[in-house]
Amino acid sequence: MVEMKTADDLSKAAERARHSKLFVQVIQWRQYRVTNRESGAEYTVNFFVRDGKRFGHCTCKAGMVNVICKHLAAAAGRHVMMAAQHRRSGIPMAA
Description:
The protein contains 3 helices and 5 strands. The chain is of the alpha+beta class. Helix 1 crosses helix 3 (70-89).
């Protein structure tokens, strides 16, 4: 589990994600499946908030040692887009 304080925390991982063939699917609110289209490997990414702080976790090797990985960065991009859509729609998001 890693705390995500700023967008800069994700910048290097986001750059790696842009150069990878990753496919992000929503499992449920704040939970995503990220598939590497080249290798077929699948990882689960979870986001959560504790005491007002934002955290993420990925099931890949880097995530298991609390490193912000490209899978987490890819899922974070999708999550931010979904949250923005919810805010615009006025529909309350699940906790």
